[in-house]
Amino acid sequence: MFKDFYTQRGEYVVISAEQASRFAKGVAGDYNPIHNPDARRFCVPGDLLFALVLTKFGLSRQMEFRFTNMVGADTPLKFSEADDGTLHVCDESGKGYLQVVRSGDITHDADVVEAFARCYVAFSGKNFPHYLKPLMEQHGVMFNPKRPLVIYDSMGFSLGRLDGFSPGLTLNHSSLEVHGKRADARLEFSIESAGEAVGVGSKKLVVSGLCDYDADEMAAIVEEFYRLKAAYESA
Q1: Which end of the chain is less packed: N or C, by CB atoms within 10 Å?
Q2: pLDDT band at 150 (very low <50, low <70, confident <90, very high)
Q3: How many helical (H) and strand (E) elements, i.e. helices and strands, does the chain have?
Q4: What is the pTM of this model?
Q5: H/E run at residue 23
Q6: What is the pLDDT of residues 100-129, one digit of tens each?
Q7: What is the DSSP string of 61-102?
Q8: CATH code: domain of residue 35
């Protein structure tokens, strides 16, 4: 499961820039330039760390993920469970990148875990332009077009059951709170299976370097997004 997107080296997981970029585009549909292998500020997608946590520790009924630092290419990462059950992703020096608190029943059923991981990642990958552009336009702000920075802060969900479902995620509500040069975006979603509600969740993003909304600048950014998408899909 997702084994093409990392390399296991002893107790550490190593993710190359190429693997991370391929996951972002091919699995998440995320064409954020920060995930391009040649990006000056390259980082591994948080959704790949999310997927690997589920792969290694299973899917719990309740899970809360908090991203604390951005992961660079080829960083040796250790996925571990503390005595209190909290999950941690840290590098060799102990620097933390992700902390996960979970509770309730756990399933290790590979089909269920992979289905949920892929479903969430496909939803999450639509941050921009699908969810963020309308929010920024509504509030009259946008990220710096020359240095767009959207940081994955946290996400969590609660599931009513873990057995026999093929999940789908739907955005229920979105909001943007502006604080000077940064803003917090919240995306609330429902989790369904065969038309039945099986859970709820939410995701928080931090948008930095805010400036006044410029329709022409935003149109150019969106156009570039779809150009990159078309180029990847035709390759």
Answers
A1: C
A2: confident
A3: 5, 12
A4: 0.93
A5: helix 17-26
A6: 999 999 999 999 999 999 999 999 988 888
A7: EEEEEEE-SPPPTT--EEEEE-TTS-EEEEETT--EEEEEEE
A8: 2.40.160
